[in-house]
């Protein structure tokens, strides 16, 4: 099963990556930019696997770049308290 198949697993996966980056000293603006790049890649290359991802994909498809950066920042905030670490 892919980490993308389950919303809670996806949030935990992202939370783990976020915490790893923070421990390595990655700045918040860098995290936000990476989240934007990952969101853009996923929107273009990966088929949504659950209802939550479908909503995000739909929102991403109609958003301006500024709005996409906002969505990416909200995803970072959403997963800050997730993860297994």
UniProtKB/TrEMBL annotation:
Q: Name one Pfam family in it.
A: DUF3243
Cite the Gene3D superfamilies for this sequence.
Answer: Protein of unknown function DUF3243 (1.10.760.20)
- List the protein's name: DUF3243 domain-containing protein
Q: What InterPro entries does this protein's entry cite?
A: DUF3243, Uncharacterised_YmfJ, YmfJ/YflH_sf
Superkingdom assignment: Bacteria
């Amino acid at each position: 099963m892919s980490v993308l198949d389950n919303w809670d697993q996806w949030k935990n996966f992202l939370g783990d990556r976020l915490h790893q980056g923070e421990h390595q000293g990655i700045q918040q603006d860098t995290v936000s930019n990476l989240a934007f790049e990952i969101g853009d890649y996923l929107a273009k290359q990966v088929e949504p696997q659950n209802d939550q991802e479908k909503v995000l994909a739909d929102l991403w498809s109609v958003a301006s770049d500024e709005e996409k950066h906002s969505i990416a920042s909200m995803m970072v905030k959403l997963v800050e308290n997730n993860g297994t670490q």
